[in-house]
Amino acid sequence: MEKEKALFRVHFSSLSNVVAGLPFFATLFCVAWSVYFNFEESTATHCRVPNYLPSISAAIGGYIPQRNVWRICIALHAFPRFLIAVAYFRFHMRFLVEKWRKLYSTLAGLCTLLHVVENFALVVLTYISSLDDREIHESMFVLFMVTSEVYMLLTCLLYRWGHTIGGRKMTPNEIQSYHYKLGMFVSNFIIFMMAVYMYFRHNWYCESGVYTGFAACEYLVVFTNIAFHYTARLDFHDQYLSLKGESHRTSKTA
């Protein structure tokens, strides 16, 4: 006789708290520690204009213990993120979209792929800093941002499509999740565009304080990205993540 036993079981709400809390804590810690202990080095710019905040790359890549804290937190949160990416594919596919089903399924698969690549790019740019290999670090950052923005957009589209198919009405919990997702995506995109503008303006004109604005926008991009992914707490509020094994028992006959 075979019986499945749960070797590991955790509520998705608890998992979401950990997955969102680790990078949130790491960002705050690295920035605060850099400002307090490595202010001059971490805020230095190529054109020597006044700057009052370190960029995230400066805060996490070149100093100890910031680099170690960041790497540990990202490593710990990465594996659950891959599991959540797969869970979201099944989450989207449980809705019976008859018309345009092939397109819906393709977009759900693409959404999962983008989620996985976003997480992979974050891990790579974490362990290969701009000081180790600037080209790889910058390439992974671009890949992270592109996949992140497209993933958030597709998730919002799929969420509304699946949850309103055939005249279905969204529950209050689903409405809350959708509005949070949409709000975080729009905020993230606008702030990212502001960051890009300030980055190039700083490099073109070397104005005082512009790089500080860029760094502040970077922090907000990270926090809105974390907040977007944290909506998994709402989507899987009644779910558990389980690791199951099989126990085998052989019955003896006389």
From TrEMBL:
<feature type="transmembrane region" description="Helical">
    <location>
        <begin position="140"/>
        <end position="161"/>
    </location>
</feature>
<dbReference type="GO" id="GO:0006506">
    <property type="term" value="P:GPI anchor biosynthetic process"/>
</dbReference>
<feature type="transmembrane region" description="Helical">
    <location>
        <begin position="12"/>
        <end position="36"/>
    </location>
</feature>
<comment type="similarity">
    <text>Belongs to the PGAP2 family.</text>
</comment>
<feature type="transmembrane region" description="Helical">
    <location>
        <begin position="103"/>
        <end position="128"/>
    </location>
</feature>
<protein>
    <recommendedName>
        <fullName>CWH43-like N-terminal domain-containing protein</fullName>
    </recommendedName>
</protein>
<keyword id="KW-1133">Transmembrane helix</keyword>
<feature type="transmembrane region" description="Helical">
    <location>
        <begin position="69"/>
        <end position="91"/>
    </location>
</feature>
<keyword id="KW-0812">Transmembrane</keyword>
<keyword id="KW-0333">Golgi apparatus</keyword>
<feature type="domain" description="CWH43-like N-terminal">
    <location>
        <begin position="12"/>
        <end position="238"/>
    </location>
</feature>
<keyword id="KW-0472">Membrane</keyword>
<dbReference type="Pfam" id="PF10277">
    <property type="entry name" value="Frag1"/>
</dbReference>
<dbReference type="InterPro" id="IPR019402">
    <property type="entry name" value="CWH43_N"/>
</dbReference>
<feature type="transmembrane region" description="Helical">
    <location>
        <begin position="182"/>
        <end position="200"/>
    </location>
</feature>
<dbReference type="InterPro" id="IPR039545">
    <property type="entry name" value="PGAP2"/>
</dbReference>
<feature type="transmembrane region" description="Helical">
    <location>
        <begin position="212"/>
        <end position="232"/>
    </location>
</feature>
<dbReference type="GO" id="GO:0000139">
    <property type="term" value="C:Golgi membrane"/>
</dbReference>
<dbReference type="GO" id="GO:0005789">
    <property type="term" value="C:endoplasmic reticulum membrane"/>
</dbReference>
<keyword id="KW-0337">GPI-anchor biosynthesis</keyword>
